[in-house]
Amino acid sequence: MVAAKIAPSMLSSDFANLASEADYMLRCGADWLHMDIMDGHFVPNLTIGAPVIESLRKHTRAYLDCHLMVTNPLDYVEPLAKAGASGFTFHVEASKDNWQEVVRSVKAKGMRPGVALKPGTPVTDVYPLVDDEVPVEMVLVMTVEPGFGGQKFMPETMEKVRALRQKYPSLDIEVDGGLGPDTIGQAASAGANCIVAGSSVFKAKEPAEVISILRKGVVEAQGRN
């Protein structure tokens, strides 16, 4: 059984107060802090990079779960490692020719490698990365189109989560996009254990209560399965 990990998406936070927002999320019960890194090319939006990660690292010991929505993930390995990133999750769509080099570089720099896939990408595309002799340690199933927060959860993506959980019982499976109290049941029942949540946490009157609901959803689903 894999542990539940709740990762508030800092994309939904107040960037002018990133350190205090991060501390607040941890005090509310977050396990990880999810950091969305977008290059304005792989996805239309442009967000943060290594300098922001480095700045935040000075104020927290938290696990910084970095999701790279970038065209050339290999270019980001060394800068993010120096900045203090904990996890480095890159997109399979952006690394079809060099994913082994990316994974090995990420591990060599002391970060935890993960791979993400868009809603339209077949789940079988990530199997070789999990089965490799130097495997990724997490698969992120996007439950919305990557690039913007606040989108609606796509339930059809849960088939990928189910397939991954059946094939890899001990794998960390993360879901990102439209997760909240109304959708956690679908994601957790399918087998997701790492839950990224942005708007549903940051816009809540009681973020700690939402984080607790998300965690309870994962734990209860695991108890039924």
Give a brief outline of the structure.
This protein is an alpha/beta fold and 225 residues long. It is built from nine helices and eight strands.
Task: Describe what you observe in this structure.
This protein is an alpha/beta fold. The chain has one domain (5-224): Alpha-Beta Barrel (TIM Barrel). Helices cover 35% and strands 19% of the residues. The chain contains 9 helices and 8 strands. The chain has helices at residues 18-27, 50-57, 77-83, 99-108, 127-131, 158-167, 184-190, 199-202, 207-224; strands at 5-8, 32-38, 63-69, 87-91, 112-117, 138-142, 172-176, 194-197. The chain has an 8-stranded parallel beta sheet. The longest helix has 18 residues, at 207-224. The model has no long low-confidence stretch (mean pLDDT 96).
**Would you state the CATH class?**
Alpha Beta
Overall pLDDT = 96
Per DSSP E runs of 2 or more residues, the count of β-strands stands at 8
How much of the polypeptide forms β-strand, as a percent range? 15-25%
Q: Enumerate how many helices there are, as a single number.
A: 9
| Content-based structural category | alpha/beta
Choose one word for the global shape: globular
User: If you compute it from the alpha carbons, what radius of gyration comes out, rounded to the nearest whole angstrom?
Assistant: 16 Å
Please bin the fraction of helical residues: 25-40%
Order of helices and strands: EHEHEHEHEHEHEHEHH
Q: Outline the biggest β-sheet.
A: 8 strands, parallel
